[in-house]
Design a protein that fits this description.
single chain; mainly beta; Lipocalin; 10 strands
Amino acid sequence: MISSVLALALVAFAPQQTQPAAQSQTQVQPSARPNPCDAPEFRHFDFWLGEWDVAGPNGNQVGRNVITPIAGNCGLHENWTGAAGGSGQSVNTYHRTDGKWHQVWVGNGGGMLHIIGGLQDGKMVLEGTTQGPNGQLLHRVTWTPLDDGRVRQFWQTSRDGGTTWAVSFDGYYSRRKE
């Protein structure tokens, strides 16, 4: 009894099609609106796009990184795999409201970092702070496109608000040959 009542209810509330299918369906054309992310500011970090082998200053491989465009070219997605087993991902985008680039990084060790900045003399420079057991740590990460097609990522940290800096990472990105 319940199943026949349910079947009757479904038939009663089902949309009625009074026109042939070919006449009732109209083609909706996508909007011809321009992509706001076609603005030049959104291309400032494009030099980092690609598949990379990453070596330290001594030439030893420290990892691999894949940087791809996302969300209609409105951002970049980073997928890092370290040679020692670490991994992490970041999302990077230009934020029109504040006129700055933002990166949010999440590592497999549970860490998260939000750094902000922009293009300075052809280099992407982003900074931010984290709070740790020993106080606040200031991060400055600089990506430099090199004349030979590589990209250098130079990461520094400061425990004294930027008076002194220590090198956390110095990596040279070479495009993967595979």
